[in-house]
């Protein structure tokens, strides 16, 4: 059976490769998407990519994912540390949830050490740079295929 994965990137991740390159590196979100599409083809997974800067839009994309996705790979950006509402939406999603942070949030300011989304995530990648997205996709394949 076809396995479908939603990649959901939250606020400011559209600026990957441009903002704070010392923290987030030079790879853009388009690069990440291209790499993950190639890997997904190899692994036999179907992927959809979404990025939004709006909390409500993220929640609606998670609700919609309930109707078609087997897994969500999410980088909630700054909402990781603030959004009970995104946690609640993920709690209404039945499939596998993997959380990705490009930076190692535990090595940064104390307010980044806690992620509400981690209370739901089945696994968390942090500090592996943008490779974390591909690593999460590989993990998704091991869990789902
Ligand atoms: O926007 C981001 C990106 C981030 O989620 C990461 O990918 O390392 C870490 C968050 O603390 C930050 O607000």
Automatic annotation (TrEMBL):
<feature type="binding site">
    <location>
        <position position="88"/>
    </location>
    <ligand>
        <name>substrate</name>
    </ligand>
</feature>
<dbReference type="InterPro" id="IPR018509">
    <property type="entry name" value="DHquinase_II_CS"/>
</dbReference>
<feature type="binding site">
    <location>
        <position position="81"/>
    </location>
    <ligand>
        <name>substrate</name>
    </ligand>
</feature>
<feature type="active site" description="Proton acceptor">
    <location>
        <position position="24"/>
    </location>
</feature>
<comment type="function">
    <text>Catalyzes a trans-dehydration via an enolate intermediate.</text>
</comment>
<dbReference type="GO" id="GO:0009423">
    <property type="term" value="P:chorismate biosynthetic process"/>
</dbReference>
<dbReference type="Pfam" id="PF01220">
    <property type="entry name" value="DHquinase_II"/>
</dbReference>
<comment type="similarity">
    <text>Belongs to the type-II 3-dehydroquinase family.</text>
</comment>
<keyword id="KW-0028">Amino-acid biosynthesis</keyword>
<feature type="active site" description="Proton donor">
    <location>
        <position position="101"/>
    </location>
</feature>
<dbReference type="GO" id="GO:0019631">
    <property type="term" value="P:quinate catabolic process"/>
</dbReference>
<dbReference type="GO" id="GO:0003855">
    <property type="term" value="F:3-dehydroquinate dehydratase activity"/>
</dbReference>
<dbReference type="GO" id="GO:0008652">
    <property type="term" value="P:amino acid biosynthetic process"/>
</dbReference>
<keyword id="KW-0456">Lyase</keyword>
<feature type="binding site">
    <location>
        <position position="75"/>
    </location>
    <ligand>
        <name>substrate</name>
    </ligand>
</feature>
<comment type="pathway">
    <text>Metabolic intermediate biosynthesis; chorismate biosynthesis; chorismate from D-erythrose 4-phosphate and phosphoenolpyruvate: step 3/7.</text>
</comment>
<dbReference type="InterPro" id="IPR001874">
    <property type="entry name" value="DHquinase_II"/>
</dbReference>
<feature type="site" description="Transition state stabilizer">
    <location>
        <position position="19"/>
    </location>
</feature>
<keyword id="KW-0057">Aromatic amino acid biosynthesis</keyword>
<dbReference type="GO" id="GO:0009073">
    <property type="term" value="P:aromatic amino acid family biosynthetic process"/>
</dbReference>
<dbReference type="InterPro" id="IPR036441">
    <property type="entry name" value="DHquinase_II_sf"/>
</dbReference>
<comment type="subunit">
    <text>Homododecamer.</text>
</comment>
<feature type="binding site">
    <location>
        <begin position="102"/>
        <end position="103"/>
    </location>
    <ligand>
        <name>substrate</name>
    </ligand>
</feature>
<feature type="binding site">
    <location>
        <position position="112"/>
    </location>
    <ligand>
        <name>substrate</name>
    </ligand>
</feature>
<protein>
    <recommendedName>
        <fullName>3-dehydroquinate dehydratase</fullName>
        <ecNumber>4.2.1.10</ecNumber>
    </recommendedName>
</protein>
